[in-house]
């Protein structure tokens, strides 16, 4: 039941991504191209998503626990550090180059376009690069 | 390449994206972050966390097919960049999003809605670097 719920959640999210235009790199890159072929549509995506989530989270948190047990797991850190700022800055550069972000590319896989698969394989490679560097740093500290 | 301004579709899609995020919090008590879900699948550390993530991804991937079934057309997806840029952008996205602990969905939708200080720093950071990147690529290097 929990898995069916998760699948349905993914379907709702993915349908939203598809309708919103987020899975269209031409639209995403135009959103950032303020001085060129600007298309401000994606500001409306973020607006709609944040309105619902802001209200919805507060209603959900009136409960003691999630429907399928466990507890609400929300990040508690407030640390503004170099990893947060540097990582976010780097992420934005990649987003501006490719026009896809992970949350848009996963549903976009369902269109069957090879470019989407290529992007997600590259993202996975990026995860491994980050792991590798972290492992080297930990090793250097231990040694 | 020009794209159409679609405030209503984008806002409506955004509402569904937000609904997906709220449902995941309601059912499983988790933040809907595509980077976390994807890296959780890639580095599957324990089986319990793997199942719901896999189910969500399946739901997301089914979404474009559902739209095709209902409307008779796939969601629009045009890629105005070269395969090399998809690969380079993808690796940078994967590295940066895992270093910065989130992307457009986790920091953007969920983090802003929680009024997380880290996300309030992360989102303008990646929006700005994405816009600078698009500006440089399109208007300085003229690609």
Notable traits:
heterodimer; A: 143 residues; mainly alpha; B: 143 residues; 76% helix
SSE order and pairing:
The complex is a heterodimer of chains A (143) and B (143).
Chain A: H1 2-20, H2 25-32, H3 41-60, H4 82-98, H5 102-108, H6 114-142
Helix pairs in contact in A: 1-5, 2-4, 5-6
Chain B: H1 7-28, H2 34-42, H3 47-71, H4 83-99, H5 104-114, H6 117-140
Helix pairs in contact in B: 2-3, 5-6
Task: Please give a structural write-up.
The complex is a heterodimer of chains A (143) and B (143). Chain A has 143 residues and is an all-alpha fold. Chain A has helices spanning 2-20, 25-32, 41-60, 82-98, 102-108, 114-142. The model of chain A has no long low-confidence stretch (mean pLDDT 96). Chain B is built from six helices and no strands. Chain B has helices at 7-28, 34-42, 47-71, 83-99, 104-114, 117-140. In chain B, helix 2 (34-42) packs across helix 3 and helix 5 crosses helix 6 (117-140). Chain B has 143 residues and is mainly α. The chains are: A mainly alpha (143), B mainly alpha (143). The interface between A and B is large, with 113 and 113 residues.
């Amino acid at each position: 039941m929990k898995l069916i719920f998760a699948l349905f959640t993914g379907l709702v999210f993915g349908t939203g991504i598809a309708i919103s235009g987020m899975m269209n790199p031409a639209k995403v890159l135009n959103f950032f191209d303020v001085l060129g072929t600007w298309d401000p549509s994606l500001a409306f995506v973020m607006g709609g998503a944040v309105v619902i989530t802001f209200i919805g989270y507060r209603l959900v948190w009136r409960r003691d626990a999630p429907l399928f047990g466990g507890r609400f797991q929300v990040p508690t850190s407030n640390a503004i550090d170099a990893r947060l700022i540097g990582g976010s800055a780097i992420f934005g550069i990649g987003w501006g180059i490719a026009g896809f972000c992970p949350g848009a590319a996963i549903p976009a896989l369902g269109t069957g376009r090879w470019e989407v698969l290529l992007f997600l394989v590259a993202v996975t490679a990026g995860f491994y690069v980050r792991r590798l560097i972290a492992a080297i740093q930990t090793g250097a500290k231990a040694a | 390449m020009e794209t159409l301004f679609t405030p209503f579709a984008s806002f409506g899609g955004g509402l569904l994206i937000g609904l997906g995020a709220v449902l995941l919090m309601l059912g499983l008590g988790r933040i809907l972050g595509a980077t976390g879900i994807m890296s959780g699948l890639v580095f599957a550390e324990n089986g319990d966390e793997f199942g719901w993530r896999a189910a969500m991804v399946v739901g997301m991937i089914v979404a474009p097919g559902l739209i095709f079934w209902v409307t008779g057309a796939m969601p629009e997806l045009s890629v105005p960049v070269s395969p090399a840029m998809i690969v380079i952008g993808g690796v940078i996205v994967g590295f940066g999003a895992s270093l910065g602990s989130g992307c457009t969905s986790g920091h953007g939708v969920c983090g802003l809605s929680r009024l997380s200080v880290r996300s309030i720093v992360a989102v303008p950071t990646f929006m700005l670097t994405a816009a600078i990147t698009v500006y440089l690529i399109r208007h300085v290097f003229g690609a």
